[in-house]
Amino acid sequence: MWTTAGAQDTVAGVPARFVAAPASTEEAAAVLAAAARDDLAVVVRGGGTKLDWGVPPRRLDLIVDTRRLTGVVEHAAGDLITVVRAGTPLAALDLPGQQLALDSPLPGATVGGTVAVNTSGPRRMLYGTARDLLIGVTVVRPDGRVAHSGGKVVKNVAGYDLGKLFTGAYGTLGLVTECAFRLHPVPPVAAIVRRTAPADRIGALLAAVRAEQAVPSAVELDAPAEGEVTLAVLVEGTAAGVRDRAARLEKVLGGPATDEFPPWWGRYPWDSVGMKLTVPLSRVPDLLGLGAAVRGSAGTGVLYADVPVASAPAVVERLRAAAVRAGGHAVVLTAPPAVREVVDMWGPVAGLALMRRVKDRFDPEHRFAPGRFVGGI
């Protein structure tokens, strides 16, 4: 059922004892039922692209690897729906004429891992995040019981929405084995309008883009720790529509339109210490010039920061204070052990008592990814 772990089988530096790689929901249920009987602490691994996110597990016995839980179960093209196994790499999805509009900032990321931490890329502005596109889910609870939620129609509202609950829970509530997603047609034409300007001009430029109502798919910002900031606005659609909207944005931004994406598009900016910052749209400029390179969605107020290791405690506090003053949040997603020991990874989190009650209900023994999530969940 499981094999002895190797030297590479670690999570945030914590070694596992065993590894299991089920090929179906039924096999996964049997693995987790046996793990529950043996009181094994479990962490789920997909592509391994985000295993260093969050806090190291308090204990780790078994890694459940989803590399065999792959493939498209169903593609209902007429309904714009697909059902996909959780271990499927996002980049491997081939849905002719249609797309699962989730930009993965990390090559190799799987469907399940993307849902587990609710990662998203530039086009979340138009299409939403994994939580918005997920309409049904099959999960295996920590005791080995299988549960289903949602369905294969967009307006299905029957039952409790487990998908929303499991999305962004960092794998602390159970194992996602299959996901049903809403799809979108692939737009035939795209264009990007760019403008580089001093940081003190960015607020006005962003306001002008919003006022133009050009319905962009993404408004991205790339700001080094010092120096000028680049804005890139993506519009998609028919050739005539894109041409008209791009021309309007060229006038607003004073920059050229192109069909070439900048090299930094949709990529996290960090080398070692990475933060996620959320603020209202009008307060995005408040996060610039605070000692970190910042990149991300100026159109949704979700940005990511590259924090220098040498000054991490001070810069993390500075960015968190700015985000909180603006009515937002700031969390440290990934950091080396020396930084984890001296910074608060999560910061203040509303609703922590409720989150703990949910954890207690789904995983009363606290065996699934123990301590990985906020508040030691």
From TrEMBL:
Protein name: Glycolate oxidase
MF terms in GO: catalytic activity; FAD binding
UniProt xrefs under InterPro entries: FAD-bd_PCMH, FAD-bd_PCMH-like_sf, FAD-bd_PCMH_sub2, FAD-linked_Oxase-like_C, Oxid_FAD_bind_N
Short name of any one Pfam family annotated for the protein: FAD_binding_4
Domain annotation FAD-binding PCMH-type: ranges: 11-186
Top-level division of the source organism's lineage: Bacteria
PANTHER family referenced in this protein's UniProt entry, alphabetically: D-LACTATE DEHYDROGENASE (PTHR11748), GLYCOLATE OXIDASE SUBUNIT GLCE (PTHR11748:SF103)
Keywords: FAD, Flavoprotein
